Amino acid sequence: MASERNGDDDRERLSWREIDRRRDGSRHVRPEAKPSGRRQQEQEKVRREALKRAEALFAGKQQQPSYKKALAALEAQRATPEFQNAAQKFLAEFELPEDWRGLMLFLDYADPAVVGSALTRLQKLAPTASMVELQGLKGKLRTLSLTSRDRQIKAQAAALLQHL
Q1: Which of 4, 112, 141, 158 lies in disulfide reach of 150, CB 3.0 to 4.6 Å?
Q2: H or E segment at 137?
Q3: Residue 6 has pLDDT above 60, yes or no
Q4: Do 99 and 62 touch, CB atoms closer than 8 A?
């Protein structure tokens, strides 16, 4: 029978330690201790907080909670005598908004340059706007084209209304 093995004896035999090492599952090596459930939860919480801070840092002012509060306060003062002052403070702190809702608020502002900028930005956002948003914009454009004291705003509102 030994002669039937066809030279198996010539091969070098591996020790059990080498076999275990190759399997990478040696029984003589202590497994790495996994972090406990509480410690793992704490690490995950710290990681999430760091991610939130990093996202807030790169998102800019318009993604911060203070921006959202200020925009809500500005919206609450719409059509009141305090709106112009509130809008001026908002612009000083945050600049002109990038979102549809904020831009629509600034169509009621007294400064024609700000209204013109808001109209330009709304025109860029119009292709992605919903039908309800577009209907609201069309109504506001009709009002501006008829009642605005500034000729450029009247012309820009009428041109945008024709474009939509």
Answers
A1: 112
A2: helix 131-147
A3: no
A4: yes
Domain positions in the chain are: 40-95, 97-164
Q: SS3 sequence, the chain?
A: CHHHHCCHHHCCCCCHHHHHHHHCCCCCCCCCCCCCHHHHHHHHHHHHHHHHHHHHHHHCHHHCHHHHHHHHHHHHCCCCCCHHHHHHHHHHHHCCCCCHHHHHHHHHCCCHHHHHHHHHHHHHHHHHCCHHHHHHHHHHHHHHHHHCCCHHHHHHHHHHHHHC
Residue 44 C-alpha from the chain's centroid? 22
pLDDT in tens, 49-85: 888 777 766 666 666 667 788 888 888 888 888 888 8
Our CA dihedral for 126, 129, 135, 141, rounded to 10 degrees, sits at -30
Percent of the chain having pLDDT more than 70? 80
Please give the DSSP secondary-structure letter assigned to residue 82.
T
pTM: 0.57
Summarize pLDDT for 112-125 with one digit per residue, the tens.
Answer: 888 888 888 888 88
